[in-house]
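Sequence in, structure out.
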Amino acid sequence: MNSAPIVPGNSTSLEDRLLRQLPFAPQLDWVDARVTGWMARYGLTLMRIGLGIIFFWFGALKLFPNLSPAEQLVRGTIYFIDPDLFIPVLAVWEMLIGLGLITGIFMRLTLLLLFLQMPGTALPLVLLPDVCFTIFPFGLTLEGQYIVKNLVLITAGFVLGSTVRRGRIVGDGS
């Protein structure tokens, strides 16, 4: 039996115990350490930039009438504000979030804008359930899936928010 540490320390997960049984466990451990070290080093930056691209891109689409697939959803949800005024404001708001994330500048303000915007993205679930659900509450339409995926964006915002006071992911040093 090979006792190569797939995960540093005394890991007792089923996955680690099974991996240690493989004849190539030391080589796998070497690759695993390098790949996870690379992820620890670059993952937050890539998440921040990737999230920024999404916000900037989706915001920019909203500046051009009928180009954003979310435009009709916004128009149907924000019926109490003139959508011809609201949609460009939302577009610029999202683009500012995107620029803040891409550059990493003013992260606290950027994340505040993100977290202030996110509840509005969930409004169609309440105001337009017939557009978001095929069968309430589990059968989602494409629009419903578009909205629910925002949980990932919110969670990414939490992870990035953990770094504004120098928090970071630390690799095991191997």
